[in-house]
Amino acid sequence: MASSMQHQPASSNSSSDVDQRYAMYDEKKRKRMISNRESARRSRMRKQQHVEELCAQRALLQKEQIACNQKIDAVSQGLAAISAENDVLRAQCAELADRLQSMNAILQLWADVNETVVDIPEIPDVLLEPWQLPCPTLPIVASADMLQF
C-alpha cells in the first residue's frame, strides 16, 4: 500500500505537469494566434493602402491621358489647318506660274509682231514644280519635346 501511495502523489505531480504543459502549450498557441491575427491585420492594412495608392495613381494617369489627348487633338487641328493652307498656297503658286507663262507668251507675241527683241526670263522650275524647292535639304529632327506646350 505504501507503494501505491507513493505513486499517487507522483501521478498527481505528473498530471499537474501535464496540465502545466498543456497550459503552456495553450498559452503559446493563444499567443501565436494573436500574433497571426495581428500580422494578418497589418497585411490587410498594407494591401488596402496599396490599393488606395494604385487608385490614386490610376486617377492621376487618367487625368494625364485626358490632357495628352487634348494636346494631340489641338496639334492635329493645327496640322489640318496648316495642311489646308499649304494646299491653298500650292494652288496659288500653280495659278501664278500659269499666269506668268501666259504673260510671257503675250510678251513674246507682241515682240514678234513689233519685230523687237525682248529678253523674257524663263519661268523658274520652282514655280512649275513646287515640290522641288531650291532650299538645302536638311534632315528634320524630331523629338518628344516638340509636342510639349
UniProtKB/TrEMBL annotation:
Composition skew (Basic and acidic residues), residue ranges: 18-28
Protein name per Swiss-Prot or TrEMBL: BZIP domain-containing protein
Coiled-coil segments on the chain, per record: none
Localization (cell): Nucleus
MF terms (GO), sorted A to Z: DNA-binding transcription factor activity; protein heterodimerization activity; transcription cis-regulatory region binding
Region (Disordered) location: 1-47
UniProt KW keywords: DNA-binding, Nucleus, Transcription, Transcription regulation
InterPro entries: bZIP, bZIP_plant_GBF1, bZIP_sf
Domain of life: Eukaryota
SUPFAM superfamilies linked: Leucine zipper domain (SSF57959)
Lineage: Eukaryota, Viridiplantae, Streptophyta, Embryophyta, Tracheophyta
PANTHER family, sorted: BZIP TRANSCRIPTION FACTOR 44, BZIP TRANSCRIPTION FACTOR 53
Bias (Polar residues) ranges: 1-17
Domain BZIP intervals: 26-89
Record GO biological process: positive regulation of DNA-templated transcription
